[in-house]
# Entry
Amino acid sequence: MTQKTILVILISCLLTPIFLNAEEQKPFPILLNIPLSGNASYYGEEARKAAELALEELPEKNVSLIIEDDQLNPTKSIANYKKYPEAKALISFSSSTANVLAPLAEQEQKIQLAIASDPKVIKDRKFSFLHWVIAKEEVRALREEIIRRGYHRIAVIHTEHEGSNAIVDAVNNDFKENNLESKLILQESYLPDNFDFKNFIIKAKQKNADSVIVVLFPGGLSNFTKQARQLKLDVPFAGVETFEDESEVKAAQGTLLNQWYVNSDVPSDNFINSFKKKYNSYPSAYTANIYDSIKLLSQAVTLYGTDTSKIAHFLATLKDYQGACGQYSTTGDNRFTLKATIKVVTKDGFPKL
# Structure
């Protein structure tokens, strides 16, 4: 063997680890599918802010973000997913989009963290997780407040959508289990683009409803509350999640003020202060979940690199994690022990009762 050959071999041996390390150090790519346009754009913009804050605060930049607008449209969500095959994980922002992405993520062993309610997203799956308050926990808080306020004849209106359907199913099951189903006197669903609720309002008045549980999406919510007041349905509204939307409160022209609802608990003080310092505004609902999802994935990558099976196991066995959503653990079925609370709509924000 000549000296030149030996030199080439030595150089190759020295350079190979350098190239491998460079490959290993590439940030773990996360696709963030959020509604940056359309009726739910308020939530998407808040989610984007939370994601960028989380990325900025990471002690090691071992993950990267690909942010795409899906308008809460499952077809767009799939197109975004296929556009970035290099993404090792995805964060989705509704039950409808999470449901269509879950089979793809499972097949390709990519992590999905869904800010969503529908348990079908995680049924018989290893790689998809729901990072949101369990619908049963939300409904428990809702039922307790309804009893406290003395409602007896309750009408229910909701958007025909996997997430709101899961919440209404939880309402029906909970009220049946607690022998309260007789309180539910009317129940109707509407397609997301149907904003004419007059028939429901007339029925609610005819049945002497003393309250309405409203689980409508942005656009529908503000139209419903205005129509209800115009038609003299002067009863309290009880919401689940979607009342916490500044643009909807403004569009409702005062008809949402002082109405109460159930949502995720107030975020940690540290997260609130960091968000206010960066954006000069109070973080809305869902932001803490987006923030924690990115922090959790970063922590998992630190421990396990790009091995998504090990990352899935890390998420499935999480215990006493301290994040923006407070302290929580896994429930054993790819969900987490996140808390629900009662809040009220005011002209200055959404304080906890």
